[in-house]
Specification:
It is a single chain. The chain has 165 residues and is mainly α. It is built from 5 helices and no strands. It is elongated, with a radius of gyration of 47 Å.
Amino acid sequence: MATPIVKPNTPNAEIDQQLQRVETLHQQLKAEHVRAQELLARLKGEEYQSSLNQLPPKTQEWARSHKSLDMRLDHYRERPKRLDKRSGGGKNTMDIGIPELKAEEREIRDLEARVSGLEGRVRGFEGLPPDKEMALMEVEKMRKELEALARRRDAMFEGLVEGDK
C-alpha cells in the first residue's frame, strides 16, 4: 500500500530538480548575454574602430618586413654553403682533423705575433702629425733637442770629472 503513494511523488521531485537546473541555466545565459552585449558595445566603440582604420597600413608594413625577413633568411641559409666553398673548395668542415686545426692555430699565432710587432712599430709614430713634411720637421726638432740634451749631459759629466781633480 505504501508503494503507490511514493511513486507519484518521485516524478514531481525529479521535475522540480530539472526545473531548478533550467532556471539556473537561464540565469547564467542571461548573465552571458549581458556580458556579450557589453563586449559588442566595446567592439563597436571608438577604440576598436580607430585600430581598424590603421589595419591596412600595418598589414602593408608587416608584409614588407616579412619579405625582408624572408630575404635575410635565404641569405643566412646560403651563407654556410658559400663559406664551405670559399674555405675548403667544397670540403666539408666536419672532415677537418686535429693536425689541420693545430696547423691553423700555429698560423694564427704567427699572424698575431706579426700584428703585435707591427703595432709596436706604429706606436713609435704616435704623436707625429699625419702630413709627411710636418712629421719630418717634428723628427728633426726632436733630434736637435736630443743632441742638445746629450751636449748638456757631456758638459755636466766633464764638470764632475774636472771637479774631482
